[in-house]
Amino acid sequence: MRFKDDSLALHTDLYQINMAQAYWKDGIHNRKAVFEAFFRKIPFGNGYAIFAGLERIVDYLNHFHFTEEDIAYLRSTGHYSEDFLQYLSEMRFTGTLRSVREGELVFGNEPLIQVETSLAEAQIIETAILNIINYQTLIATKAARIRSVAGDDAALFEFGSRRAHELDASVWGTRAAYIGGFDGTSNVRAGKVFGMPTSGTHAHAMVQAYRDDYTAFKKYAETYKNCIFLVDTYDTLGSGVPNAIKVAKEFGDKINFLGIRLDSGDMAFLSKKAREMLDEAGFTDAKIFASSDLDEYTIFHLKAQGAKIDAWGVGTKLITAFDQPALGAVYKMVSIEDGNGEMQDTIKISSNAEKVTTPGLKKVFRILNKRTNKLEGDYISMQDENPAAEKRLKMFHPVHTFISKYVTNFEAINIHETIYEKGRLVYELPPLDAIKQYARDNLDLLWDEYKRILNPEEYPVDLSQKCWDNKMRNIEEVRQKVIRLEED
Ligand SMILES: Nc1ncnc2c1ncn2[C@@H]1O[C@H](COP(=O)(O)OP(=O)(O)OP(=O)(O)O)[C@@H](O)[C@H]1O
Ligand SMILES: O=P(O)(O)OC[C@H]1O[C@H](OP(=O)(O)OP(=O)(O)O)[C@H](O)[C@@H]1O
Ligand SMILES: O=C(O)c1cccnc1
């Protein structure tokens, strides 16, 4: 490589730096701007998403600066003035960042992250922030769907590194899968970097290397105490399972015969037969692992057929978010300082009502019904509102406003944490297991209707009256401006 790849500051789209130079030339680069990151539609047709990515954002922002090599590269493009490059070389993240926690349940159209910083900084960091949360939130959500089908008793392992979209996606993806409910990963680097549990059996290659099941299983058992034998290389019921049993009997207490892995064929039929054979041989505790192109649908169907599978290894379809490869989160400006130091709301209009942004700095409250201990919905308010103080809260649909309800006896929980304040990290990142537990606990607060994987109910994400009025006022102002322009 021509330049050492030692910083992620250039992990941005060219237009961000181009806009930054234009702002800088005009002297507005330091105006305070507020941007919010959100997605519109929950992926996979799910009823909720699980937020992941904050830890990597913190790592990115902590190290955010353009190195000498970065500046040299930008200089070599010939697009930027020396004064601007000097300004860039001194740029650090100096703003405030609020975010929902990793493991938080999140829904469409609510700000996941709010960035309040200089206009130029806010633009340059957009790409990396979206890149991180779009992928990690997608994988955590896919993992949660798979967990919900597999059930709490099943063991779930992430096996997808070989098929992920390159190296970074494997490790951050498997961490997200862990947050979403997986028990461990086959990726050893993720074990080292994140302290995640690692797990593994052996491949067909080992059976092929020794030419037969029996020798391969024996060699494995001579090396490791804990043994799971892959039984489908040649003939699952004719050779694989009988040889696994034979080796387990021969080694007796010298090994922990944890079970067998099936990786092809009709896994409902094979698992039932294999279970009978293991039980008859006295290995009633031995588990049956399954892998091979699994996802929530195949697991659902295998379970419906009464498959005797205790543990699942899921790779490709999880780590690549196979059926929906993008979350589609966006990052939109909601307010900006004017020339007099006052913050002014901004809005992005669309012909599609659902796509019109909600202007202004906002808060998101999760409304917990204290009687049922279940969530009533989310309530987006303006920054200065406090729904917790209300006795009776009106919640109404932000587009179809006639759909409304009143909630009493509730708790209103602000779901954002302040992560950075004026460039200083003020948040302590929780340990990974606490994040995973947090996601689990949150799912308990959700009614089952929102949790089914097919056609779940739509969780309410509502606007406060003030927020809605503000949005309408902004729409009207833009309309007036456009009409005036048309008249001129
Ligand atoms: N009983 C079953 N019901 C539904 N799906 C199943 C059942 N058994 C296996 N499957 C799934 O069907 C697919 C079978 O894939 P396929 O026929 O391509 O290959 P395979 O049997 O795994 O063999 P190989 O790996 O040798 O190609 C996999 O996604 C597997 O998870
Ligand atoms: O199917 P996935 O959900 O992606 O799960 C991972 C797959 O990776 C391995 O197969 P591979 O054919 O790569 O190698 P092996 O069978 O020889 O181990 C494993 O046996 C699984 O089938
Ligand atoms: O340990 C396993 O069985 C494993 C790991 C990665 C991919 N497939 C299987």
TrEMBL record:
This is Nicotinate phosphoribosyltransferase. The keyword Ligase applies. The keyword Transferase applies. Residues 362-470 form the Nicotinate phosphoribosyltransferase C-terminal domain. It holds the Pfam family NAPRTase. Belongs to the NAPRTase family. Its EC number is 6.3.4.21. Residues 156-337 form the Nicotinate/nicotinamide phosphoribosyltransferase domain. Residues 10-134 form the Nicotinate phosphoribosyltransferase N-terminal domain. Keywords: Glycosyltransferase, Ligase, Phosphoprotein, Pyridine nucleotide biosynthesis, Transferase. It catalyses: 5-phospho-alpha-D-ribose 1-diphosphate + nicotinate + ATP + H2O = nicotinate beta-D-ribonucleotide + ADP + phosphate + diphosphate. One of its GO terms (molecular function) is nicotinate phosphoribosyltransferase activity. One of its GO terms (biological process) is NAD+ biosynthetic process via the salvage pathway. One of its GO terms (cellular component) is cytosol.
